Amino acid sequence: MLSNIPFAAIASRTVQTVGEDGQVVVDTYGGFIGQFYEFGIASGLFPLLIFLGVGAMTDFGPLLANPKTLLLGAAAQFGIFVALLGTVALELLPGFSFVTGADGEPLADSILHVAGSIGIIGGADGPTAIFTTSRLAPEYLGPIAVAAYSYMALVPIIQPPIMRALTSVDERRIEMRQLRHVTKAERIAFPIVVLLLCILLLPSATPLVGMLMFGNLLRESLVTDRLSDTAQNALMNAVTIMLGLAVGSKMSADVFLNVTTLGILGLGLVAFSVGTGSGVLVAKLMNRLTPANPVNPLIGAAGVSAVPMAARVANRVGLEANADNYLLMHAMGPNVAGVIGSAVAAGVLLTLVPALAG
After folding, report:
1. Which one of 34, 155, 262, 338 is least enclosed by Cβ atoms within 10 Å?
2. Cβ(137)–Cβ(117) under 8 Å?
C-alpha cells in the first residue's frame, strides 16, 4: 500500500544523472522507503546484516557431528540450476519475455541475469535471493523476494507430499544414531576454516559467507555475549523491518502485476520442489553406498535453507511414521548446510553470469 499511494512518492529513489559538464548529479526525491532501498538493498548492506544475525543464531554442531549431511545441503541447491534453465526456456516462448517489456523497453541486461536471480529462489533463503537479485536483475527484486519468502513460509505445505512420494514407510521409520559431542575447539575453528576456504575458492561468495561465519564466531567464542545477543535480537529485528519496507518499495503495480510475475512464481515453486526432492534422493543414494550407517531420507529435504522450518517439517513427517523417531537435530545438519550452500550458489552465479552474459 505504501508503495502505491498516488502522488505521495513514498517509495521513490535517489537518481544519479550526468550533467552537461560531465559531472554526476545526485537528485534525491520522494520518501523514506526509497531511501531504505538505496541505503540497504542497492548497497547490499541489509542482506549482509541479516546473515550476521543468522550466523549468531545458528548452531553448526549437528553439521559437525555428522559431516556427510553437508552433501544433503549441497544437493538441495540443485533446484537453483533447474529454475535457471527453466527461465531461459520460458524466454523462448513467443510473446513472453523477461528481458523486454511490452513497450519494447529493455527490462534487464540479459536473460542470464534474470535466470540467475530467479534460480536463487530455489535456495529458499530470502536474504541470499535479495543480495543476488540486487546485483543481477534489480528490476525483478519485488516479485523474486515475494516468491522466495512465500515458499519459505509454505514449507509445511509444499514439502510433505514430495517427501512422502519419494520415500517408503520403512525409509521414513529409519532411526538415526545419537549425534556425538562436538567440542568447543571444533565450533570455534569451523567458521574460521569455512571463511578461509571461501576466500581461496569462491571470493564472490565471501560477503555472505563471511558475515554468516562472523556472526557464528560471536556466538561460539563465549566472550562476546553482548554482541551476539545484539546481532540475534535488536539488530536483526531492526534490519528486518527496514528490509521488508525496502523490498516493498519495488512492488508498485506497474512492475508487480504482470505475466512475468506469474512466471517467476511458477519457476520459484519448481525450484523449491526440485531442491526438496533432490535432497531426499541423494539421502537415499547415500544409504545405498553406506548401508551400515543409514540416514533417514527425510532429513535430505531440510537441505533447503529455510531454517529451522524445514528441519521441523522433516521431524514431523518422521514422527508420523515412527512415534519414537526424533529427527530434528539430525535434520538441522543439512538445514544449516543449506544456508552455506545457497550462499555458495549465489557466489557461483555472481561470478559466472556476468562473464557468460558479457
Report:
1. 262
2. yes
Q: Are 56 and 218 in contact (CB under 8 A)?
A: yes
Query: DSSP letter string over 26-79?
Result: EEE-S-HHHHHIIIIITTSHHHHHHHHHHHHH---HHHHHSTTHHHHHHHTTHH
DSSP 173: T
DSSP-assigned letter for residue 106: B
pLDDT at site 307: 87
Which pLDDT belongs to residue 132?
94
Rounded percentage of the chain residues whose pLDDT exceeds 70: 93
Contact call for residues 69 and 295 (beta carbons, < 8 A): yes
In this structure, the number of other CB atoms found within 10 A of the CB of residue 184 comes to 10
Report the Cα–Cα distance between both ends of the chain, in Å, rounded.
Answer: 38
Length reported for the chain: 358
- CA-nearest of 282, 290, 315 to 74 is 282
Spatial distance between the Cα atoms of 214 and 229, rounded to a whole number of angstroms = 13
Confidence of residue 278 (pLDDT cuts 50, 70, 90): very high
CB 13 within 8 Å of CB 30: yes
Q: Measuring CA to CA, which residue among 146, 135, 143 is closest to residue 112? A: 135
Placement of cell 519457476 in the chain = 267
Using alpha carbons only, what angle is made at residue 269 by residues 265 and 272, rounded to the nearest 5 degrees? 135
pTM: 0.88
Q: For the residues 322-332, what does the mean pLDDT come to?
A: 93
The angle at the Cα of 325, spanning 323 to 329, to the nearest 5 degrees, equals: 135
37 and 28 in contact (C-beta within 8 Å)? no
Confidence of residue 18 (pLDDT cuts 50, 70, 90): low
**Radius of gyration over alpha carbons of the chain, in Å?**
21
Helix 126-136 with 206-220: angle, nearest 10 deg: 150
Q: For residues 38 and 13, is the Cβ–Cβ distance under 8 A?
A: yes
Residue 11 has pLDDT above 80, yes or no: no
Average pLDDT, integer, range 97-124: 85
**Three-class SS of residue 103?**
coil
Confidence of residue 136 (pLDDT cuts 50, 70, 90): very high
